[in-house]
Every structure is written in C-alpha cells, then in structure tokens.
Write a structure and sequence with these properties.
This protein is α+β, with helices and mostly antiparallel strands. The chain has one helix and three strands, in the order βββα. 40% of the residues lie in helices and 23% in strands. It is elongated and about 90 Å long. The N and C termini lie far apart (64 Å).
C-alpha cells in the first residue's frame, strides 16, 4: 500500500467577523472604574448577518481558533461561488451570442 495522505479536517463555516470586546461592569469598586479604567476582557464576539438578520454571539477563548477557521472557510466558499457565478455568466453570454449569430444567418 502507498503512503497515507493526511486530509485536513473540515471545521464548518460561519459568516461574520470576530472582534475583541473589553467591558466595564456595574460594580462601583471595579478596576474598570479606576483612573485610567482597566476593563474586563478580552471577550470575543462573532457578529454576522444571515438572511437579512443580524446577530452576535460570544465565543469562548478556547474556541477562537476554530471560529477563525470557520470564518475563513466561509470567506473561501463565497469567493468560489462568486467566481463560479462570474464564469457561468460569461458562458451564458457566449451561448447567447452564438445563438443570435445562428439566427441572423438563418434569415
């Protein structure tokens, strides 16, 4: 048998972007109320729009790398779909032009 080829694992897709949030809590003795304030965080938040509706969710620190891969997968998928649409449109235009030329010759 030949050598095994390692296949990358598919981690899923997620639309959106990941940001870091730093928050100030409501506790009056909190370090966030100091001068200068020392905010809590970083907290990670995924923001997205899907089917016309926006949403967000917090992402655990341990999940950040996975979510980044999922966002990158979505970005690659959208680029491939856009390329596919561009090529399909060009092909359709060429077929229409060929069809029109054949109709003109038939007259």
């Amino acid at each position: 048998m030949g050598a095994e080829v390692a296949r990358p694992q598919y981690s899923g897709i997620l639309p959106g972007s990941l940001s870091q949030q730093y928050n100030v809590c409501g506790n009056p003795n909190c370090r966030g109320k100091a001068s200068p304030p020392q905010r809590h965080g970083a907290y990670y938040e995924l923001n997205y729009t899907r089917k016309g509706k926006g949403g967000s969710r917090f992402v655990e620190r341990e999940e950040v790398n996975l979510v980044k891969r999922q966002i990158a997968n979505y970005t690659r998928l959208r680029a491939l779909i856009d390329r596919w649409i561009d090529l399909g449109t060009k092909l359709a235009d060429l077929k229409l032009a060929t069809h029109r030329r054949s109709l003109k010759r038939a007259r």
